[in-house]
């Protein structure tokens, strides 16, 4: 059961609790799935008694899961730990990095998802007196289904917002007075734009809490501040994945980042040598959901880049470990441009903190037409509420981008509303290089 008291366990108690759960999970996966029975044949769960021993267990990649499903029988291949009659829900990943992974959940797993999201919502201040609006078309993706269940578990009122236009959604916010809205940062910007066009003042609405998911924007300082200014509400972040579950959430602390839900997840941050990196260093995220039943995962490689904070206890009272700055990007999102590593998030932070332009932007990386070089261009939109000249924006933005990325951008300043808007998740970076494919990540 969901138990907020676990959040203040001492580090020692937490470790012991996690290792006990991990042993159970390993045994369950080995005993009940063909996939892990084979993969973990050399692993004896009762011997995994320290965190050092955990690194002897092989990790599981997305492509292994995908192959197991494509080559095996039925929808889920040899990954199922229960009879198919026990499955109550089907979801799938978006498949942005390959064909989608199918995710089965039993009733017990759905309880687990609900517990995980209740932890997120509770940390973000959601209580029975709140009304939570989900401006999202619920579909085959797990996004917000579990959040919906969890809001009900807490006792809050839920307003489903699927099957509506953006205009209808901002009208619902004005009419029904929800106090909490849950959506992607991209869509939070979009709804704010639509509200302004419709003459609806979101700052005067009852919304006091925005819970973001799906993109890391709410842990980017300038994005968070821009959203808080537009909505007049506190903005919180959450991170999760279809396979791993809702593993991280921000809190009331001023530090940007995410607590790991350590009652439900064993989270490791590994370096290139597959050994844990020390707090403060960048590494990749490996997650084991500790109570995932129907389709278990052991040491699942998420490929998100994160940095564990050195702080042991948070001002919010939790002792769960803290991922400083949230998810810093997926490994495949980082680009090498003219030999320099570029983080899309750095560009987002600069654009969203820059006066005189709107929040939408697009970046294109191309081959130089003549030289053996890359070119990088950014298109932004001028904000009519500011009186800055196009030349001034262009010059200053180029300077700011060069200072933080060490790259020279071509800056194109356009009129507001001329760039394409994505409804939920943005893909603001296009890499159109052909010649220098070897430099691409
Ligand atoms: Zn905290």
Please supply descriptive tags for the structure shown above:
alpha/beta, 2 domains, four-stranded antiparallel beta sheet, binds zinc ion, GMP Synthetase, Chain A, domain 3, Rossmann fold, eight-stranded mixed beta sheet
SSE layout:
Layout: H1 11-32, H2 34-39, H3 51-54, H4 62-71, E1 87-92, E2 102-106, H5 107-123, E3 131-134, H6 145-154, E4 157-160, H7 166-176, E5 180-183, H8 185-197, E6 209-212, H9 221-231, E7 234-241, E8 245-249, E9 257-260, E10 265-270, E11 282-289, E12 300-307, E13 322-324, E14 329-330, E15 335-337, E16 340-342, H10 344-352, E17 357-367, E18 374-382, H11 390-405, E19 409-414, E20 429-431
Parallel strand pairs: 3-4, 3-5, 5-6, 6-7, 17-20, 18-19
Antiparallel strand pairs: 1-2, 7-8, 8-9, 9-13, 10-11, 11-12, 12-14, 15-16, 17-18
Helix pairs in contact: 5-6, 7-8, 8-9, 9-10, 10-11
Bound molecules: zinc ion (ZN).
What does this structure look like?
The protein is of the alpha/beta class. It folds into two domains: 1-330, ANL, N-terminal domain (Rossmann fold), CATH 3.40.50; 334-439, 2-Layer Sandwich (GMP Synthetase, Chain A, domain 3). The chain has eleven helices and 20 strands. The chain has helices at 11-32, 34-39, 51-54, 62-71, 107-123, 145-154, 166-176, 185-197, 221-231, 344-352, 390-405, and strands at 87-92, 102-106, 131-134, 157-160, 180-183, 209-212, 234-241, 245-249, 257-260, 265-270, 282-289, 300-307, 322-324, 329-330, 335-337, 340-342, 357-367, 374-382, 409-414, 429-431. The strands form five sheets. An eight-stranded mixed β-sheet has the order 4-3-5-6-7-8-9-13. Strand 5, helix 8 (185-197) and strand 6 (209-212) form a beta-alpha-beta unit. The longest helix is centred in the N-terminal third of the chain and has 22 residues, at 11-32. The radius of gyration is 22 Å and the shape is globular. The model has no long low-confidence stretch (mean pLDDT 91). It binds zinc ion.
């Amino acid at each position: 059961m969901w138990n907020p008291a676990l959040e203040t366990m001492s580090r020692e108690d937490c470790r012991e609790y996690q290792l006990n759960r991990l042993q159970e999970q390993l045994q369950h996966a080995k005993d009940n799935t063909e996939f892990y029975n084979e993969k973990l044949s050399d692993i004896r769960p009762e011997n995994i008694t320290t965190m050092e021993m955990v690194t002897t267990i092989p990790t599981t990649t997305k492509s292994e899961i995908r192959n197991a499903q494509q080559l095996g029988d039925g929808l889920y291949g040899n990954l199922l730990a229960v009879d198919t009659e026990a499955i109550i829900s089907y979801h799938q990943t978006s498949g942005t990095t390959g064909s989608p992974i199918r995710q089965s959940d039993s009733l017990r797993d759905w309880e687990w998802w609900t517990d995980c999201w209740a932890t997120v919502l509770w940390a973000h201040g959601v209580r029975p007196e709140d009304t939570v609006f989900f401006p999202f078309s619920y579909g085959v993706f797990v996004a917000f289904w579990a959040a919906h269940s969890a809001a009900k578990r807490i006792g809050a009122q839920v307003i489903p917002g699927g099957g509506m236009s953006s205009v209808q959604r901002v009208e619902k916010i004005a009419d029904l007075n929800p106090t909490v809205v849950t959506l992607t940062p991209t869509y939070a910007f979009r709804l704010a734009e639509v509200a302004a066009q419709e003459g609806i003042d979101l700052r005067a609405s009852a919304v006091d809490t925005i819970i973001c998911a799906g993109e890391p924007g709410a842990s980017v300082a300038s994005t968070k501040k821009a959203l808080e200014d537009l909505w007049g509400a506190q903005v919180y972040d959450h991170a999760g994945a279809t396979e791993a579950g809702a593993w991280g959430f921000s809190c009331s602390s001023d530090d940007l980042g995410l607590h790991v839900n350590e009652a439900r997840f064993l989270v490791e941050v590994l370096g290139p040598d597959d050994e844990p990196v020390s707090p403060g260093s960048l590494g990749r995220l490996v997650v084991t959901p500790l109570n995932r039943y129907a389709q278990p995962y052991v040491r699942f490689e998420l490929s998100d880049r994160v940095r564990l904070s050195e702080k042991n206890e948070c001002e919010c009272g939790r002792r769960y470990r803290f991922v400083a700055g949230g998810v810093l990007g997926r490994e495949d999102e980082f680009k090498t441009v003219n030999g320099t590593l570029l983080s899309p998030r750095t560009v987002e932070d600069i654009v969203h903190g820059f006066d005189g332009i709107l929040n939408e932007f697009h970046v294109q990386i191309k081959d130089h037409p003549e030289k053996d070089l890359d070119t990088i261009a950014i298109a932004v939109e001028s904000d009519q509420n500011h009186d800055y000249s196009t030349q001034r924006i262009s010059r200053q933005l180029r300077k700011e981008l060069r200072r933080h990325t060490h790259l020279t951008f071509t800056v194109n300043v356009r009129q507001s509303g001329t760039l394409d808007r994505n409804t939920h998740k943005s893909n603001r970076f296009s890499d159109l290089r052909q010649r220098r494919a070897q430099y691409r990540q």
